[in-house]
Amino acid sequence: MSGRAHWPWPISVDRIYAGGAGREAEKSNRTAGNLHVDAFRLALESDGWLVEPTYPNHEAVERAWKAKRDGFVISGISRPNDDKTLGVPEINGWCDRGISLRPIPLIYPGFEVVKALAHHCPECKRDGVETVRVAFANRACRGCEPALRAKLETPGWCD
Ligand SMILES: [Zn+2]
Fold this sequence. Notes:
Blueprint: H1 20-46, E1 50-53, E2 64-69, E3 72-77, E4 90-94, H2 111-117, E5 131-134, E6 138-141, H3 145-152
The structure holds zinc ion.
């Protein structure tokens, strides 16, 4: 595929339910995204992650799941096109300290790469650095921390 090679999946939610060719294009886009989520889930499973339904009483594990391994968590959403609910193919991840992992590749890269994401700074794009939580879920290295804090933790950010 062209364009971004990691999540979030490039899709425009507001056009899914519009009529005409745009709607068809978004439907196939969404289908392709769901296939990526499904493939990601199967890869996690075969790599030793424990995969469970996010909503055990409401929704099948194939549609909404959460995978765990050594404190790391990756979750996925893969809902079919005929759903009346809004939603996009989606994968999110958190390290063992609860800070979000990003960017998560479209294709499961293996546990070593997932662990390395915990030491990647999305701000300056450096790898192998110590990272800290900023605001709710953002990650930054010590060098980028002050600027990101100033940007995101404006007065009232945690109200
Ligand atoms: Zn940085």
